[in-house]
Design brief:
Layout lengths: L2 H6 L2 H13 L5 H12 L3 H8 L5 H6 L14 E2 L2 E2 L6 H17 L4 H4 L3
Antiparallel strand pairs: 1-2
């Protein structure tokens, strides 16, 4: 899948995939929502509204109201790529959220996922 095609997909198609990844490993949608809110600054209500809109995944990431400055603490590999070395800001945001959901799915406590 090319970079553009992921960002052109609707948020309502991408987000359930993240939730599903976590749920398969015994985590909850609420934990994914908390993680997403922490990273992006969206409220749970804003996420719910986006899920019923035509907003793209790219729009969701680009228009994040308060992207968390602690996101720079997110390190490690996602799909074989070091998250902290990604130069494209939008791709980096996408991989950071992916990494946090991966950490949830691997059983990391929510407090550690949220860099608390």
């Amino acid at each position: 899948m090319t970079r553009q095609s992921v960002f052109d997909m609707t948020f309502s198609k991408v987000y359930p995939l993240l939730v599903s990844k976590a749920e398969r490993k015994g985590r909850t949608r609420d934990e994914v929502d908390q993680t997403t809110c922490w990273l992006t600054g969206y409220s749970p209500e804003e996420i719910a509204a986006l899920l019923t809109s035509e907003a793209t995944y790219g729009d969701f990431l680009e228009q994040a109201p308060r992207y968390n400055p602690a996101s720079e603490l997110i390190t490690g590999k996602v799909c074989g790529v070091q998250v902290e070395t990604i130069e494209d800001p939008l791709v980096k945001r996408m991989r950071q959220l992916d990494k946090l959901v991966d950490e949830l799915a691997k059983g990391k406590p929510l407090e550690k996922v949220l860099r608390s």
